Queue: 3 jobs
Job 1
Amino acid sequence: MTGTFEFSITGTDEFARCGMMRTTHGEVATPAFMPVGTRAAVKAMSPDELWAMGYRLVLANAYHLLVRPGPELVREMGGVARFMAFPGATLTDSGGFQAMSLAGINSISEDGIRFRSHLDGAPVMLTPEGAIEVQQALGSDIMMVLDECTPYPASHGDALKSLEMTARWAERCLRTHSSPTQALFGIVQGSVYPDLRRMSARQITSMPFDGYAVGGLSVGEPKEAMLEMAALGASMLPVDRPRYLMGVGTPSDLIAAIGMGFDMFDCVIPTRNARNGMAFTRRGRISIKRAAHQRETGPLDPECECRPCRTFSRAYLRHLFMSGEILAARALTEHNLSFYARLMREAQAAIASRTFRAFANSLTAALEEGEAANKETD
Amino acid sequence: MTGTFEFSITGTDEFARCGMMRTTHGEVATPAFMPVGTRAAVKAMSPDELWAMGYRLVLANAYHLLVRPGPELVREMGGVARFMAFPGATLTDSGGFQAMSLAGINSISEDGIRFRSHLDGAPVMLTPEGAIEVQQALGSDIMMVLDECTPYPASHGDALKSLEMTARWAERCLRTHSSPTQALFGIVQGSVYPDLRRMSARQITSMPFDGYAVGGLSVGEPKEAMLEMAALGASMLPVDRPRYLMGVGTPSDLIAAIGMGFDMFDCVIPTRNARNGMAFTRRGRISIKRAAHQRETGPLDPECECRPCRTFSRAYLRHLFMSGEILAARALTEHNLSFYARLMREAQAAIASRTFRAFANSLTAALEEGEAANKETD
């Protein structure tokens, strides 16, 4: 399928694996978290900051870039990575999820997704073929098939219909894919029904994709259902291809999913929550708004070596946040993304040294203990 | 008056001078432009970026820090420079200008300025003594006296009354000043009346301030009146003390004012205009919104070596701006502040080599030519 994309597993520990993806725009160590760069920018961050934190792969949203500035402009500018001046690799989603969740009026049929741009109301038709053409214009290293992200809750019958259409769309995407420098990943659906998840996994993995994703989770279902479906999904995916758990999640979700054998993740939590004043630490989450931080001279996280933690007191960060300063969004985003990057580096090292279970247990316990302690003082 | 503050002139060229200020928090080469860090943060910038651009002195607004987070908190945190993690020096205004322009209800009397906080409506009285106490708590390297910034237009009679009160307030500030590590500057008023400007300058310079500012300009008067009053003001100020032209201005204003013998400037233009999509270049201003930039692969300013100009195309910056991305504000602010920093470095070098007039003429011509060319293509 793809000329340049390669994935090799360099270590395993129980179900967890560490490895290396080789893309047109460089190597990416896995497990890898992808910061979300919706409009070809990770909100509040500059591309050199992402690079310095260790990120080698970021996600951009095809839907947003389709409506503005348009895929042809991005192609002219040398593709999305070059457009956003990121020296690493990019993954684009297919645009389907945003077309369904953001676009004003839409209808889904066998043909594809019909929607109106959330910017100017212009009618757009996104077909499986079109989704690949858009992503080939965007020039991402990893493209995603157009799928129907089954809403939650869905009846067994609706979820079945949905995953079967997703499988037909996946085939159409595969037939359209013509760019040897871009990988294409399939997506497993099936809502919260184990039999449907198995059926979808069999259908999608019967097609020669470069990697496989588990989608349709973190859309409102209970956390236990998410973890159960994720574990089932991972167990159904080929061992020798990257496994991507879409839209997940919190630090403890990521640790759990790495333990299941997933290799790739994306989530808006570290970036969006940062802009709302929330910081992740080894001892649970912190809300910088709290009056308790008003006179605190210490950093967000004494165990963190990120630039904001080396530079700013909690008192100053709280002042910035309360004042609506852009620097608050910058500093908290940089901290949270540094936290996630370090989490991935530590997970990689723990898998390589076959100590992942101890690492996961100790980190999860510290996070939970911190959460409990934070609640007491709230 | 002040133990640690020193100013030495290291070169002159006609009226222009270059020099060095020594403050408690380090040396500052003059002519110096001060980025405005209203709430102890220069909007969209981090302190290490300001330092890397060459800034050694930033301005913070006493009024804003008085209402939030409060001067005592800033004092506890080691003063405003340390609070904002800026490794250089700071200047604070007295708070009078913002108290008059932002605060909801206010009255001005011989005692001082009575206002209500724009945040919570709490009544606050800012006296000359209080303004110094606030700034001593803030721990800035250079404090400003409380003055009445005479509104424009003002009758000759009103402007006279106003400058006389400003002089009495200046004396009260001087008597209150007790911190040997902080310099205190006086402020000349007098609206657009040459006789009043002379009178105010005589009154203020008869008091032993560490430096002298010309205030009450760029408040709505015609540009010619501003330049005339500034030139008159500079000619009335002592040669051996820093001269600060408050609230000015555009690149060509700064060149003109340096030619008059001013040493220090502050203005929100480079930062505020950046957030509105305007970039300064050697060939005039650019509005990044313009459709003409949509597909431009070149940088904002091909003659600029700032990080955004080395990194981003105009097409990408336009996309960021149209998408409301924080990175647009960051990149344009960094570019504009880099432009201003370079302007100051070049002015210093031109004065030192006694080529300031040629430098000023050539730069002013390029800026004007660029403006004309930009208009044609608008």
Job 2
Amino acid sequence: MTTRIAIVCPGKPLRQERADKVLALAVAEFPQAELAFHPQCFLESGHFAGDDETRLAALLETANDPDVDAVWFGMGGYGACRIAGDAVAGMREAARSKTYLGYSDAGTILGALYREGIGKPVHGPLAGDIKREGGDDAVRRVLRYLSGKPVELEAGLDDRPTAAFNLMTLAMLAGTDLMPDLTDHVVMVEEVAEHLYAVDRLFFHITQHLKGAAGIRLGRVSAVPENDRPFGSTAEDIARYWCEKSAIRYLGRADIGHDSQNAIVPFGTNRKTT
Amino acid sequence: MTTRIAIVCPGKPLRQERADKVLALAVAEFPQAELAFHPQCFLESGHFAGDDETRLAALLETANDPDVDAVWFGMGGYGACRIAGDAVAGMREAARSKTYLGYSDAGTILGALYREGIGKPVHGPLAGDIKREGGDDAVRRVLRYLSGKPVELEAGLDDRPTAAFNLMTLAMLAGTDLMPDLTDHVVMVEEVAEHLYAVDRLFFHITQHLKGAAGIRLGRVSAVPENDRPFGSTAEDIARYWCEKSAIRYLGRADIGHDSQNAIVPFGTNRKTT
């Protein structure tokens, strides 16, 4: 059975050569997957893959297309929060039976979908992650997942509902019209290219907004820029500190991050499957 | 009449030589001002001017001292959110009749004080701003203000209640136990050393949290790092975009920022005085 996967970019554009590599891998190894890169992926409008209207239209076109099984986000970067509200408001029946997969800035869309109970939001590698060392395997995991083949999910998943976010993305969602209810959820967070003082500040913010969560798991905090002074504690110390201060359970590490190992985490209730 | 001003650092430490310069200026030009730099200002504990307990104790000692008229924040940086909740909880009667002055990360304390109705929070230069080009004048403005001499405040103040914040600091306060009610307020924001995409993201967040505000004024957005692509619009475009999207009035520019021109903005209801 064919799985039809449409790729759009709600934030930054995807480079054509990366799309080509993803497509070549899919053709060679996943004949049952049909990938369609929406032309919007390759547009450039300042920071964004096309202006707000264009990105919104591409997302709605694919989400509302009954012939599309999954919407896969091509790139993160930044820009999803500009269109996420209008996107979920414009989604019709066909949008409700789809999987939506991505992470980082695209987590804004996943969060908004999850809030509205539309489709199946899934944290996992972007098409553009093909560029990374080991990126082929990241793409393979996604294609296995989307085409219903056995695939390793995040190892720490249990019976509790789960959501996974980039830390900054979650912090910006918190308290907004796009923020899902994460009561009783295990919330996984990861970060890239932020100073540890910024990670600390973001943890202050999210722990204040996650009262009632089952707990927090910390993914990788990578590419931390060097500051003019050492912060004095590690990312895990920071997570423990704020969890303790806000009476949220710190539940250990999660296998997510801005790298090719970035695990697949379906939002909501899961059981670990292989 | 003597004005007794205590300087503490809720975030980063202050360099001794900068304190010495501020003190020398005060002695030479403001004989009626008595400055006391709390020894905590010069401590170093990783990123911070002493650990949380030490910074909290210094802030409470000065705030609760009936012989202190004003608490002036020596430095921003980062760290105030770790102690602000305990600080306002530990403030007693003597804390209520004081002025608290600073900005940037110290805005976290100002916000928490304003929320609790404790004392007079005032956005304005830090003691450490003496280091800037024109920093002497920034320090003079503060010493004039704190000692009750005529001084120019932010030119745009009118009869509406006002608050002024660093954009990131306000974004992190939003929705937390430290966030003041800014309904009907003119809210001024400034930013430094953030990419324009980050400014855009922060505006998404704060406009969602400032529903009911009278409007937003934009201070300076300075030292924007160069990105791998131009953002495509200016900081003022960003402010207008999000204000329009969230039906908050955009009220033009404000004379605040991470520079020596950074205007004094008393929180609450003001009239422009000279």
Job 3
Amino acid sequence: MDRSQLEKLLAAVREGHVSPDDAANQLARLPYAAEAGEAVVVDPHRELRTGVPELVFGASKTPEQIAAALSALAKHNGGALATRVDADKARAVKALLPDVVIHEVPRALTLGPTPARPACAPICIVCAGTSDLPIAEEAALVSEFLGAPVTRIADVGVAGLHRLLARLDDIRKADVVIAVAGMEAALPSVLGGLVDRPMIAVPTSVGYGVSLDGLVALGGLLASCAPGITVVNIDNGVGAAVAAVKIGRLAVRP
Amino acid sequence: MDRSQLEKLLAAVREGHVSPDDAANQLARLPYAAEAGEAVVVDPHRELRTGVPELVFGASKTPEQIAAALSALAKHNGGALATRVDADKARAVKALLPDVVIHEVPRALTLGPTPARPACAPICIVCAGTSDLPIAEEAALVSEFLGAPVTRIADVGVAGLHRLLARLDDIRKADVVIAVAGMEAALPSVLGGLVDRPMIAVPTSVGYGVSLDGLVALGGLLASCAPGITVVNIDNGVGAAVAAVKIGRLAVRP
Amino acid sequence: MDRSQLEKLLAAVREGHVSPDDAANQLARLPYAAEAGEAVVVDPHRELRTGVPELVFGASKTPEQIAAALSALAKHNGGALATRVDADKARAVKALLPDVVIHEVPRALTLGPTPARPACAPICIVCAGTSDLPIAEEAALVSEFLGAPVTRIADVGVAGLHRLLARLDDIRKADVVIAVAGMEAALPSVLGGLVDRPMIAVPTSVGYGVSLDGLVALGGLLASCAPGITVVNIDNGVGAAVAAVKIGRLAVRP
Amino acid sequence: MDRSQLEKLLAAVREGHVSPDDAANQLARLPYAAEAGEAVVVDPHRELRTGVPELVFGASKTPEQIAAALSALAKHNGGALATRVDADKARAVKALLPDVVIHEVPRALTLGPTPARPACAPICIVCAGTSDLPIAEEAALVSEFLGAPVTRIADVGVAGLHRLLARLDDIRKADVVIAVAGMEAALPSVLGGLVDRPMIAVPTSVGYGVSLDGLVALGGLLASCAPGITVVNIDNGVGAAVAAVKIGRLAVRP
Amino acid sequence: MDRSQLEKLLAAVREGHVSPDDAANQLARLPYAAEAGEAVVVDPHRELRTGVPELVFGASKTPEQIAAALSALAKHNGGALATRVDADKARAVKALLPDVVIHEVPRALTLGPTPARPACAPICIVCAGTSDLPIAEEAALVSEFLGAPVTRIADVGVAGLHRLLARLDDIRKADVVIAVAGMEAALPSVLGGLVDRPMIAVPTSVGYGVSLDGLVALGGLLASCAPGITVVNIDNGVGAAVAAVKIGRLAVRP
Amino acid sequence: MDRSQLEKLLAAVREGHVSPDDAANQLARLPYAAEAGEAVVVDPHRELRTGVPELVFGASKTPEQIAAALSALAKHNGGALATRVDADKARAVKALLPDVVIHEVPRALTLGPTPARPACAPICIVCAGTSDLPIAEEAALVSEFLGAPVTRIADVGVAGLHRLLARLDDIRKADVVIAVAGMEAALPSVLGGLVDRPMIAVPTSVGYGVSLDGLVALGGLLASCAPGITVVNIDNGVGAAVAAVKIGRLAVRP
Amino acid sequence: MDRSQLEKLLAAVREGHVSPDDAANQLARLPYAAEAGEAVVVDPHRELRTGVPELVFGASKTPEQIAAALSALAKHNGGALATRVDADKARAVKALLPDVVIHEVPRALTLGPTPARPACAPICIVCAGTSDLPIAEEAALVSEFLGAPVTRIADVGVAGLHRLLARLDDIRKADVVIAVAGMEAALPSVLGGLVDRPMIAVPTSVGYGVSLDGLVALGGLLASCAPGITVVNIDNGVGAAVAAVKIGRLAVRP
Amino acid sequence: MDRSQLEKLLAAVREGHVSPDDAANQLARLPYAAEAGEAVVVDPHRELRTGVPELVFGASKTPEQIAAALSALAKHNGGALATRVDADKARAVKALLPDVVIHEVPRALTLGPTPARPACAPICIVCAGTSDLPIAEEAALVSEFLGAPVTRIADVGVAGLHRLLARLDDIRKADVVIAVAGMEAALPSVLGGLVDRPMIAVPTSVGYGVSLDGLVALGGLLASCAPGITVVNIDNGVGAAVAAVKIGRLAVRP
């Protein structure tokens, strides 16, 4: 319920078409109608409020819950996406919902066409090692689902600095950069000193021993001496994509 | 040294004005001239490369080092800024460099006028509690130094939700939001579900006991269920400002 | 053994019905009789002492141990409950003890009827996300087993604030609130500023990466700026229920 | 703004005394009026909303900020309290605000009389060691400020179990127990098996080495095998008092 | 090689029966003969040196390595013991070495008779919960293998204090106490204030959430306010038994 | 109150010299008389119960509290000891209580003569580095206060293995060994393979960086591959001394 | 592209054989040609740049990715090696690439002959326990693959000091020492005081409880009082081998 | 005592010049003579054993202890060095020992001339930021004290990559590299891919918030994807220098 709807409701009160009591009930619930009482409550109006539709986080849901959420969201929004769906769970969802498309590398599912979205500036997704690919691809898939044109650049870790420098021009062509890196995650620090674009860094859980499932990569990114890098949770390709798209839309708004 | 300068150099080689040996020497050092060999090497060309000038991080520098760095940067760039300069150190720098201006709340110093910068969209800096003000003001001062128009909104923590909701319209007027919060840092999660702007969250070290000097605030922000929030290091107002300005410039580029 | 029994024993000593030596033996063991020497010693008098019967913590027990404990407690108390019993273990217990009832979502078992308990004020159990349901349901089942009327409100996380505000009236109808939340666990902070009831927060292990299996949620709840929230261990629906029932009974005692 | 005020506003709209536009403006800000724009925004209506007035957390405020907040709150509420004010800061506040009363052991300040509050059942505050006294006294002072009758029992740690058992009857006379303990914090676990009252445990930062400034005490309390104990942040006497008073009021409401 | 052997060797040198060069070779290797060069080098003389034979730590060994080590040690010492051998591995070892005896609860294996050992005072092994039994039994089995008479007392956690107090006399009959406890591990603190025996505490990994696989129990034991409690690694029943036996032998030496 | 006193009381009841009511009152407080209600409650009977008198932990007490506790304990026990009293606080206590003796290296105070204690076998206190001396001396002073003969061996860290081996005979002359070590704390592991005595290891906070104020030393000691080493809290010389004396007394009891 | 190639290119520009534009393109990419755009980009020139060829880290790669990387590297370098390939994955790679040789203990794969490498001084690899063998063998295999002569010494932990001292002469024959140790990792500290060679310590994840999967071993090694020990990540046999070979080559260069 | 001395002693035994008993005494103490019994035992023979003299670690020593240790070592070795001596302590030592030379930036002291040492290959010490200088200079001073020629390169952090690349040739001229870096410590990772020298990385405690006093830098270095980097403790310039010199001596031995 936006301002115009609010004014319309108040006008209806003034004109006596709606009683103050009924209006109070509507207003007490705020301008949104939630299907209260059900275990899985999808939030179809989230896109209106935040510019980004609800995405299904599959890791802690059963196949039945994922299928139900995808169907409900696709019905409202025209298309839906679920992430963190491993191979076994993906097959189980597809058995329930045969129209679902399985995206293997990013471990994601889509249902229905990608809905039309606002224009977005190009995003470049850079990743340091082969092992970081699932997260980089998750970021790419979500960015594209949200309407962004995406360039992917893989395996440009700093241990082979020339690989990274060789791709600098390509990176500079984008307006927003997502840098995905595990282990010591030095890539975004180096890149942060070379490009002037907003950059979002995604630490990954790639590594062993002292890597602590990505905590050291996360810490290194936050402690980076290259100012202006912002960071999301470990392996959070979705969050990076959403942030990048919000920036990318600003960059091309009329 | 940008591409055109590179081509000019190579043309000079072709025409015999520069010997291959001299050109090799220049190129071996990359297109930048560093004053190698000195302990404090300022990087005056950083702005050309990354869009943002070098800022002086005062916490681990002596007053002499801060004064020297401010002077060198102000000479090249027209104006300079140092952060993390506590009251005692600030006085010591001012004794060495009387033109310096002390900014008390954000614990910062500036020297010279704020240089002209590219246009930037408005940034709103929201902070949860009075104790978060120094960090919020650091973010504000740096944003303004980099050319951004800034709105400040203080003391809108979630324990008094109405205070936050009362200011939503003001927040929505900005194109980029910086949310500063300590303790459990719930503010950005709530805000993330209410506005569609890119949001950068700054955890602060405000709190005690289990707050662990901001680590819990940091963790909560990274674990936030509101997708699209990006995060910087604890108390890192500078980093948030630089990131916000990079986004804000994209939003108003011609 | 309460004071009246103690005085009775001492009177019996005075009157020569009990020898000082026998009385010393009884007193040395304190007023309670434990079945010493067995590996699983149930504590049937715990309810007399603490108002709450012993509940079986199934996670680190074998099916045989769970069945034995449920039987012993049900014999003494009229009914018994075991928590943290996963699907496989539940089946194994049911094979040993066919009268057991399996509660799937909260992963719990009950044996026999719910015994009559003291009156208890209504408890509202609020949970932030679908993934928090098993813990919320554990809290609900234990609360009901202890005699409390329970209202359940699911999926009202702060990223969709309207969902929560829409249910505020329902929450305010209860006398005690249990708030279950994972990830950054902002829900109880927000709720703590909106309701005046005693609130017990249960962090859950829902999340990934920096969530650290619930440690960040736990930390955020303890660091909350909304005073008066108390907290139990991660995923500890039982503890929250016991605490809520102790409060709820106070609220309706004659 | 409660429901009756909301209905009054809507009736005024119907009758034409308030234009829909003005009403929309008021409603957009929610039923509360915040003094937006100032750095220190006190929340005088918090008591109406949550049953507990705003208390001033002195640790991260300047003497000037503390004095201003105490004055503003005392003006609205009749009396005010600030915690975490060390000796030096307390003297500085008193210099600014001579009517302030300094409470040395709990490191707190009060201004004005203790306002009348709703009735509250008796609270017993138990503490394990001499070093825990400042926190226990903070809890006691806040409880009394909120209207609760308080019993204090000090130095009953479990290493001298008899001391604790000797005071059990006194503890059982209260309706709510606050147990304050540092080091290994075993006291609340033992007490939790002996009394049937709601108990709130406050870990303290007392200890050294592996105590980690109270983290081990906190962990031990949360991991306690005595169900129904709830916990607040390390050294958080205020939070325990607020929670206890909310419970104590329920216990004696008409 | 003890002092008398050393003197014998040197006498043999003096008398010319052993050349200085041969003696140098023997001495260069120190008074012990290690079968250098093999991957599994058992240390049959450890008992001479430290009073305690080598025990096989099965957790990180293959069944083949365990069987080889047990055989070698049994040959030298008359009997051998392996710990941390789970059910599957135990079966695999028994298939290789049919004389092995499987001890199910403590997850251990023995081969051959328990060798005669020095006399040892009685040890009492107390454990807080059913889930702590495997570790308590590991401590008991190792103590008995090393020649100690053992009393076992199970399920006397502090949440039911009367259970513990009822067994105090039995505990006081032993000369050394091993206290095994998980979760918040309050048992040894309480016991430490009630008995005057040397006490060794074993934290266990029993618990969940904030228990951190026994780290909180460990921390609580080390931070205990009952002085004189010493602690071993989490789940280290073996270490506690070895320490207790070393003490128990001192107590009864002639 | 021991068993004989209990029987005497009960006989007095039988004979009518004590009323059942009075006896109940005495028994309700358990056989001990605690001065309930005062902030500092010394426990003069602790020695009867645990064999070790109460020692004053000075770190978190004011000079006034230390002086009061020393005086009270010296009055009951004939002599008293306080630890963790830094130089400034020691002077302040001495000003209040001129008979106090300051022990500089171990940062301790004693008042009055060392009371007669039960016989104790010799204890050897070994320390790895000069920086560990304050803790080693604290352990030595407390051991001697409790009646043990003590040998001190300093600066025998494993980086100079010969130093340690040169003192092995001296170490073997004692019946109990306390090994004090900071940094990586390898000394007790090496010693544990060379001597057959009960050994108590004290990690110290000596070190920097990754030493984490002694946590790494503590962890290394608990993870030691030399079985039978037991451990106390970081810098806890008192606890090691109490444990060693309890063992040493067993070793020489008649 | 080394300096001579760079001068050759510039000379070609001067002579007009290469246009400035083409030269700019080559220089912009730095002197290296990366096969940009493919997911797995092997770096065959790494050996030229760093002296050590790329090794395949198998842990986070699929069998297909491992096979592809081994083939590509073997084609360029004559032979290739992959580490962290568990038994199942090894079989899957061998099915794809039958020429691969499986090395069971170090869990590694090699393809093709070991290529000729620069001369290297002898390396001695010492390990503390049987459980450390896989890592010690990984270090040995990689060292040999890189051209080093290797001596292996197993099971010389400090709990049996004589075993270690018996092998000192063998250790001293090498020019570089790799010491592999889990649990408390005291071996390198002891060894560091006995030999004058460069020593690289590898902490292993062997241990349980407080060992924290090798973090305590790592911490102990870094905190070691024996100066000059350097450390690599937990279980990082590869890193230790590469470091040792770089040192070993220096030691025998002409 | 080396092998020839051992054979000489045994020959003396054979010839009757030394009794077996005396020889046994000598051998029992191993070939070294320690001045046992004093609190500060310097180890003047350490250089013979490990190639590196004892250095005084000043942080946890009093000025008196530092002066005593420097004097003793200088007497034996011709010159001595102490590190971690802050300005105040340095003045206090100089008052006791006027010949001492204070080195301000590296916070170190030297006494007497630098003794002649074995030849050593050149070492290059690279540091990322101005704040890392004290540690870099500590490494440089110790390296020079041990006889190494040293090149210093400051302020070449990766955020200004050109600065680093501009100095690559200078770095490559050394045989061993010490890289000093705080914050995210990306410098050594980048350098590790560009040079083929043995490299030792020193994490520093420079940084704030999530840097955790250098733990994140340490973790990043250990997790580095550039194989062959070895690491020392946080701020441990001494350890890096000793390791580098051991390598450098190998590189130039005849």
